[in-house]
């Protein structure tokens, strides 16, 4: 319990330790601590920013999706309309074409009938004369009776 | 027989409470004291080799470990050592921030040194009281008191260091004149009361380190004496009392280190304040 030089010695040791601590021990650990603190804070910042970005992007994506859906349905509707229109047109065209074809065929048939009639008429005359010749057994003056026969043929 | 036992018990206690003293003896010159009486006769010109040795060892241990952690410190994921060290540093940083109101980057490292050093020195007390005196006795040293904070020189030495810093920062922040003014004109700001103020303030100033040192010393010394008394009991009773007392001392050891550190910061904070 004697007060002696130890007191001074302890004070000197204390001073040296404190100096060493201030100079070499505290700064690296403290700076590492604060650097990490900053890093973590930055990381948290970035994370919150990223989540905000994500939210924004999600919203945008939803918006785009909605728009494209709308567009798609519009296009689909248009296509439907267009296709039905085309079908209608085609049907119309086909009907017109069919009618035209039917009309053409009918005309041709009429023509054919007419021609056949003509031919028949011409032959009837000849046939009639030939027949008459046979009947009369004499030659008939073709010239004299032609007119009469033609008249007869025309009546057919 | 009873008287014999009593004598040996007294001898045992005295032996365990005697520091290994090296000093200038009036008759033997510079030598190791072989008895308590010789150590007392040496007076001021003596040094406690055990106190100095163990305290410096603890200081070097603290600085070594923390320096190592500082060298390997990364801003990434910390290892075990760095984690532990950072915990202490953060604790001290928070303590300093909440207690110290000036602007001085040196206070926190100072507090760290005080806290860790005192903590380590106090922790030596948990070691069994007989091991080191016995070991060093075999090596030829008569005395060995391994807990530096049970030596009033050590605690007052540190408190004196804090006192020097209080005076230094008072002068630095307020100027020598400002400091003198504070000592002479508070609490009563009148010229006729200067002597009264001066006595009051100087006593208040000097009491700071003394209370600081004696508080730590008193707690540690009392605890040590009780450890020694417990060691005198029959062997089957020793652990019965020793274990609870040691567990209780885990609290005392850290609490006293904390109190010394906190009060030092408070005193230094007051030294930085203008009135």
TrEMBL record, chain A:
InterPro entries (alphabetical): ATP_synth_B-like_membr_sf, ATP_synth_b/b'su_bac/chlpt, ATP_synth_F0_bsu_bac, ATP_synthase_B_chain
Pfam families according to UniProt: ATP-synt_B (PF00430)
Bilayer topology annotation: Single-pass membrane protein
Principal subcellular localisation of the protein: membrane
NCBIfam families xrefs: ATP_synt_b (TIGR01144), PRK05759.1-2 (NF004411), PRK05759.1-4 (NF004413)
Subunit structure: F-type ATPases have 2 components, F(1) - the catalytic core - and F(0) - the membrane proton channel. F(1) has five subunits: alpha(3), beta(3), gamma(1), delta(1), epsilon(1). F(0) has three main subunits: a(1), b(2) and c(10-14). The alpha and beta chains form an alternating ring which encloses part of the gamma chain. F(1) is attached to F(0) by a central stalk formed by the gamma and epsilon chains, while a peripheral stalk is formed by the delta and b chains. F-type ATPases have 2 components, F(1) - the catalytic core - and F(0) - the membrane proton channel. F(1) has five subunits: alpha(3), beta(3), gamma(1), delta(1), epsilon(1). F(0) has four main subunits: a(1), b(2) and c(10-14). The alpha and beta chains form an alternating ring which encloses part of the gamma chain. F(1) is attached to F(0) by a central stalk formed by the gamma and epsilon chains, while a peripheral stalk is formed by the delta and b chains.
Name by which UniProt lists this protein: ATP synthase subunit b
Gene: atpF
TrEMBL record, chain B:
UniProt-listed CDD domains: ATP-synt_Fo_a_6
Membrane spanning stretches: 44-66, 107-132, 152-171, 216-239, 245-270
Keywords: ATP synthesis, Cell membrane, CF(0), Hydrogen ion transport, Ion transport, Membrane, Transmembrane, Transmembrane helix, Transport
Its membrane topology: Multi-pass membrane protein
Gene3D superfamilies: ATP synthase, F0 complex, subunit A (1.20.120.220)
Localization: Cell membrane; Membrane
Signal peptide: none
Matching SUPFAM superfamilies: F1F0 ATP synthase subunit A
Assigned protein family: Belongs to the ATPase A chain family.
Function noted in UniProt: Key component of the proton channel; it plays a direct role in the translocation of protons across the membrane.
PANTHER family named in the record: ATP SYNTHASE SUBUNIT A, CHLOROPLASTIC
Protein name: ATP synthase subunit a
Source organism of the structure: Billgrantia campisalis
Gene field: atpB
